[in-house]
Amino acid sequence: MSLKIDSNLEYILTRLHVPESRIQDYQDKTVEEVVLAEAAQGNQAAIELAVEMFTDVEKLIELFQLADPENKLIIIKSMPSYQMKELIEMLDVEDLVVGLQFFTEDKLLDLLQDIPKEELVKVMFQMFSPEQIIQYMPEDQLNKLLTCEQMDKGLVLKNLMALPEMYLQQIIESVTGEEANGTSYDLMLQISQFGDRDYKNALKHLQPDQKRQLTLAITTQHPKMFELFDASAYTKIIGTERNKDDLLKSMDVIKPEYLQKMISQLPEDLMSVVLTQIDNEKFADMLINKHPELLAKFIAG
């Protein structure tokens, strides 16, 4: 495939000082064909231009009309896959997010499960408040958080005291089978003396609303604990409560390196289209300094 010079024909012919007698011969010709033909006839300006095309970013942009995505696409499609993936790193975050539109919602949710939990939680906070996250979180996830090894027992007991006494009595009775009485502090002390198994069972027997209140209090004080929920639980909430557009609008908080990995999973034809968004100067500079062999290919026709 060749790059059409189209609207730049007049500029190129003027730049090369092509005599009127030959101008008609170059109608509908490509950049490569015009430069090569003139250089072959000894046109010094054409020879110099061919050299400049390998060294001058602005000249390359003008002559190859890189502002036209179609021209850029032709060059990109001529690249091997490893070179295309080099270009992904040159895309802005906004361009990367635009490229994510080519994935289905289900695929986007799968991709979110592969990034660090910290990044996924950032996306969640773009779409939901902490209260909403805890409200939508399945109860088994709340149980897992409250009883996991990373959870400080003292922190849990401290926040248990904020719950009404009747709920503390209920969870003690669920473990001991005996009536429980006393102040919240007394009841909390009794719970603290349970063995590990009874302690965890007591927390699991909290009423769901109280369990959510306890979990919200703890995670509000220590937001990093939101990373202890399973990624699959988060993606299920997103899939149920939000649509694809909502998700895409929230993904710009993800670090570029992880967005780039996502884009790299697109089929090459779609990846090529996404890459046409690359900044023209960055693209031209990359061609000149890293892959001049591609320019040589197009100059040669």
Question: How does this model look, in words?
Answer:
The structure is a single chain. The model has no long low-confidence stretch (mean pLDDT 89). The chain has 301 residues and is mainly α. The longest helix has 14 residues, at 208-221. The protein is rod-shaped and about 110 Å long. It has 23 helices and no strands. It has helices at 9-15, 20-23, 31-40, 44-52, 57-63, 69-77, 81-88, 93-99, 105-112, 117-127, 130-136, 139-147, 153-160, 165-176, 184-192, 196-204, 208-221, 231-241, 244-250, 256-263, 268-275, 280-289, 292-300.
Question: Which helices and strands occur, and which strands form pairs?
Answer:
Layout: H1 9-15, H2 20-23, H3 31-40, H4 44-52, H5 57-63, H6 69-77, H7 81-88, H8 93-99, H9 105-112, H10 117-127, H11 130-136, H12 139-147, H13 153-160, H14 165-176, H15 184-192, H16 196-204, H17 208-221, H18 231-241, H19 244-250, H20 256-263, H21 268-275, H22 280-289, H23 292-300
Brief account:
The chain is mostly helical and 301 residues long. It has helices at 9-15, 20-23, 31-40, 44-52, 57-63, 69-77, 81-88, 93-99, 105-112, 117-127, 130-136, 139-147, 153-160, 165-176, 184-192, 196-204, 208-221, 231-241, 244-250, 256-263, 268-275, 280-289, 292-300. The chain is built from 23 helices and no strands.
